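Our consortium's second objective concerns turning raw sequence data into structural hypotheses that experimental partners can test. To show how far this objective has progressed, the report includes one record in full. It was chosen at random from the queue rather than selected for favorable results. The single chain below, 149 residues long, was entered without modification.
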Amino acid sequence: MDLLLLGLRFLSAAILYAFLTVLLVILWRDLRGAADRREATYPSARLIVLETAERVLEAGTAFVLQRVTSVGRGPGNTISIPDSFVSGHHALLSWRGSQWWVEDQGSRNGTLLNGVPVGRPTVIAAGDIVGVGRTEFKLEMDDGSRASE
């Protein structure tokens, strides 16, 4: 009798652990799928070079924005600008909460948004001018919200 009760306890524990394992796997897949869907949904946007000193970049050059886009002089950035006035990791543009944001990364010469220094993460919209070093970019979006020049 004692052996039967011990066997039932082990069986109950095994069933409980199997149930919890299946539940965790289902939750993990659901969360991962939600994150993948969220990652995939951001509008296509780009930074267009308006002007730059010493022709370090050609005016009209377009850089497609990723969900998180780093801008700086260093080669590891998404957008690399060969300008001595640009810091190694100068600015960050990111898609958060259905808006594009720009933030300065502690650069020496600062990041400008429509001529105003960016002191904290700031929302940017189509047509805004982002200044990094001696280069100015204009934000354009493919959803029809391009600002006229």
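The partners drew two points from this record. The chain has a mean pLDDT of 89. The longest strand covers residues 45-52. Both points have been shared with the crystallography group to help prioritize constructs.
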